[in-house]
């Protein structure tokens, strides 16, 4: 039974707001608004910081946190997901735009918007075509390795802002090399601000909340204050920079940020640009979708709710198109902010819309205050946020569990660090698929015998079982398809090319979930070749769906032996062979 | 149990001649020499024709049929395989060389030799690294579709020689278009020769042998005479063309063919050329290997012998390097000639060496006689040979068996015809892998219940079984890996998000041959999410190797439920649940 597909999606299914919106209560409004305030406070510095990480003007981070949130509130199915700029997607945006070799800021912003637009169209198309399963080909080791490597890359890329030097590069070697060659130009004041704020934010994250609670503060309030740590750091460094005119002493500041609501922007329709951005947009879409869906599912399960992955594609697609049309860049559902939103009590997607209003007010009113904000403060915010993504223990976990998974993780981390995000994640996917195919191309095959006094058959190498010299029973622990069909043929022919008087080969098919046409061809060949050797080929315990299909071929007519419903029936029918010793008494009696 | 690997291969294993050579008897020498004479007669016109098909001078076909045969006799494991130029590889060579846009015949010959050299090195490397399994990724539908489409392409490409017009193209549309636009320049004498010889060869193939036998000839002699049909056609058309000077009336002839043994040639070491030829060489190697191994296995099985695929790679690699060093082009084991060799009684690879001597004598003595040979005769030889490869019934067979396999065949045939051989076969491989992954990414999952009065569990949709409202048992008919892990999670969460008072979910894992790290992660998540919903997750009938691996993870400690050895134990332990009806009497009594 396949997953039951929904019949043609109705309008209501495309607009989840029509479901939850009708039952929206006053209590839910209150919860959503409280959550929105907390998320807004957290999102303002993050939005600015991620825009800088993406190599874009700070205000684009704010713009990407307004309309996309409304769009997701309309079309998304998760009740707690908070959409906006996130670290990994910002890094991938930086890499995609960096490859274009643009220098004009207007062109760069246009390219970023176009990237969001292509990504949005791609996500929408995947959603309408219900292609959400494509994301499944990103295996867990590849995602874990990619996120860890991205965290390292992002943190390293921000060190230049902490040191106050020039350095750029889209992989670890370039970035570290550029840092080391310019380290002599370190600006001491910038360094002091950067290190202080980094240390402060780490402390806020680990130590502030327990401290406040121990001082008698209510846990909820302590939590909100801890979340406001980055805002406090922003406010404090703005004040210090302004008071001492630190910008005149080499401290880089954000500078003029346009005041007002996001502008209406249109994506470029330049075919060459689309060609250059298509692959990055697809990778950004899929990575973003995977991040968003895994957060959404985790949070939904906690309240016994469900999200609909194909509808999530539509929600994220609409968000990205919204971002493209209002001066933003690619967005997705972020892990940290969604958890904050959920913990703060958000009950419906309306919380996202309220957050959007908050960010909109910030864009409208607060941008002049950001003039003196040191870049080093934003860099510290990013470093503290992304270091929580870095988890090298995945390497040892994978090593302990399976060498194949380890190879996929290690290759993804290594290639992401050395060759950049796009090569890293693409190679990771190809390596996992290749290793999976390699593994299924050499399936586990066990020669089995009868466990005395039972009707069960077990591996002759692991158990003390009865066998017959003229009868070989092979249990194939894998579906038979093109990649392993010839392996099985080789295996069987190798096994029977010996001095034993083999007369029967039984393939025990209980774990064979599929026999494709290549495997069918191989079974026909095997049947013919064994016949040429005077050996009969039998099948046992063939599954219903596999049998249905085999009946549509010539195999069953041509088969030299029989098809047995159970392996025990095969054993009973095929022993004793004429001239051989009969089977033992207990086997017959069973 | 994996296929037992040979321990480090000994010198004898790399040189199979050391095994059969020691026991070589006088009877075997006689059998081999008779087979060699028959194969030589068949191979002379074929070698010339395939060289022309590859767009190369006719003598290169002879050169490719001398040293490669000695090399295979030294290193190959098949006793009957006949190596040399074959139709599909010649077509692929034409496509590869055609892409280079060369016009100088010397450069073209150099490129063909280099192609054989790269192919030989690649095959040798695959053999030493035991990578023969890579060929398994060419599924049967893809190979069948590719061979059929190649047959059509080759036959069409030869029509210009039958008509005596100019026309070229590497796909069906170009070729047919060029033919139609030049059909007005048809040379009538050429057309008469071409059609007559084609008809004659078809008759020889179908009607001559039965006729000779009905006239009282011994079947063996009738067979040899039928095989000599192409040689007779060659001799007759040479005589007619010479007698009436048809070459002065527009009949294209082979012309001067250098007399003597093959020259010593060296491959180009130009990096750009290697870059351009690498991918074609890999495709040629793999296609050639697959063709050769499938012929070799078929023939070996008839005598209860075995071939060793990894050693075959070495044999074919040596043959191609031999071809490259002596003025030839890529070669492989051919189907038709190997069957002839086998039927003619070849008992050891020495038959191939004797054939090489025969072709060598032809190159040394007979080439002046080939001056007046019409190209149309060679084209007729090719057309008759390749039309036996065309088998469009594979389309209807695949349609009847499985839509996926049909899609792979149809796409391979269509793309090979329209886009050429390289795109066709590459797309076929990618499509089969993609469809396989798609299929395993949506595994068959059955909800099962207890068949009354037994310990067996069956699909609740197909059978009349007992179920319990608080207990859901799902049987997963596929290994769990990254591509289907999330599908399972969605499936289970969808199933339990309902109004029934579900307390237990049992995953029945008898058909789960593998749980990779992504699936492990999903099971951990599923366990956590079900716990959040107050539902316990249990496993039953987990296979030994899978259990070994799961023990190295945290899943078993964290699992909210239990692991049961059999599904029936799970059923007994989990029903009755407190407050529910107890299980029925017969279930308890069983």
TrEMBL record, chains A, B:
One Gene Ontology term of the biological-process aspect is: transmembrane transport
Cellular component per GO? membrane
Q: Per its UniProt record, what Gene3D superfamilies does this chain match? A: STAS domain
**Top-level taxon:** Bacteria
Q: Where in the cell is it found?
A: Membrane
Known InterPro entries for this protein? SLC26A/SulP_dom, SLC26A/SulP_fam, STAS_dom, STAS_dom_sf
- Annotated membrane-spanning segments are 33-54, 60-75, 82-102, 108-129, 141-163, 183-204, 224-244, 277-301, 313-331, 351-371, 378-400, 406-433
Membrane topology of this protein: Multi-pass membrane protein
Instruction: Tell me which residues make up the STAS domain.
Output: 461-577
Protein name (Swiss-Prot/TrEMBL): SulP family sulfate permease
* Species annotation: Sagittula marina
Upper taxonomic lineage: Bacteria, Pseudomonadati, Pseudomonadota, Alphaproteobacteria, Rhodobacterales
């Amino acid at each position: 039974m396949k997953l039951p597909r929904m019949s043609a999606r109705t309008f209501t299914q495309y607009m989840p707001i029509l479901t939850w919106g009708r039952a929206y209560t006053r209590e839910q409004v209150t919860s959503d608004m409280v959550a929105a305030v907390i998320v807004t406070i957290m999102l303002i510095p993050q939005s600015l910081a991620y825009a800088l990480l993406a190599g874009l003007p700070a205000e684009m981070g704010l713009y990407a946190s307004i309309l996309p949130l409304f769009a997701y509130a309309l079309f998304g199915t998760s009740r707690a997901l908070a959409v906006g700029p996130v670290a990994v997607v910002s890094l991938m945006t930086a890499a995609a735009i960096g490859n274009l070799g643009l220098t004009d800021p207007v062109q760069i912003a246009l390219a970023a918007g176009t990237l969001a637009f292509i990504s949005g169209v791609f996500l929408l198309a995947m959603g309408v075509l219900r292609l959400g399963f494509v994301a499944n080909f990103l295996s867990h080791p590849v995602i874990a390795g990619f996120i860890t490597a991205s965290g390292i890359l992002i943190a390293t890329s921000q060190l230049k802002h902490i040191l106050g030097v020039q350095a750029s590069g889209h992989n670890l070697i370039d970035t570290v090399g550029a840092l080391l060659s310019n380290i002599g130009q370190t600006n001491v004041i910038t360094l002091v601000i950067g290190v202080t704020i980094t240390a402060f934010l780490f402390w806020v994250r680990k130590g502030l909340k327990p401290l406040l609670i121990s001082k008698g503060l209510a846990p909820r309030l302590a939590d909100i204050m801890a979340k406001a740590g980055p805002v406090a750091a922003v406010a404090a460094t703005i004040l210090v920079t302004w008071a001492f005119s630190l910008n005149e002493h080499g401290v880089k500041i954000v500078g003029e940020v346009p005041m007002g609501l996001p502008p209406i922007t249109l994506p470029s329709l330049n075919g060459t640009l689309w060609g250059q951005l298509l692959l990055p947009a697809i990778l950004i879409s899929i990575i973003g979708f995977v991040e968003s869906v895994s957060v959404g599912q985790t949070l939904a399960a906690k309240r016994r709710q469900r999200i609909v992955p194909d509808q999530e594609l539509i929600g994220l697609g609409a968000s990205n198109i919204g971002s493209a049309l209002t001066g933003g860049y690619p967005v997705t559902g972020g892990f940290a902010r969604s958890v904050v939103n959920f913990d703060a009590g958000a009950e419906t997607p309306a919380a996202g819309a309220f957050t959007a209003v908050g960010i909109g007010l910030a864009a409208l009113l607060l941008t002049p205050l950001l003039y003196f904000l040191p870049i080093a403060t934003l860099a510290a915010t990013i470093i503290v946020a992304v270091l929580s993504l870095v988890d090298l223990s995945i390497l040892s976990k994978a090593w302990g569990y399976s060498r194949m998974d380890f190879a996929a993780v290690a290759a993804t981390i290594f290639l992401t660090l050395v060759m950049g995000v796009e090569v890293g994640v693409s190679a990771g996917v190809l390596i996992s698929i290749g290793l999976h195919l390699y593994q299924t191309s050499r399936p586990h095959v066990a020669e089995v015998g009868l466990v005395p006094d039972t009707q069960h058959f077990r591996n002759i190498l692991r158990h003390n079982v009865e066998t017959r010299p003229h009868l070989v029973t092979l249990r194939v622990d894998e579906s038979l398809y093109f990649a392993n069909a010839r392996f099985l043929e080789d295996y069987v022919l190798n096994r029977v090319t010996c001095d034993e008087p083999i007369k029967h080969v039984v393939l025990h098919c209980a774990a064979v979930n599929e026999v494709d046409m290549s495997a069918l061809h191989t079974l026909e060949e095997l049947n013919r070749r064994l016949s040429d050797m005077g050996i009969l080929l039998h099948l046992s315990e063939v599954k219903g769906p596999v049998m249905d299909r085999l009946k549509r071929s010539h195999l069953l007519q041509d088969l030299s032996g029989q098809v047995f419903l159970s392996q025990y029936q095969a054993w009973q029918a095929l022993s004793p062979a004429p001239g051989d010793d009969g089977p033992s008494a207990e086997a017959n009696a069973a």
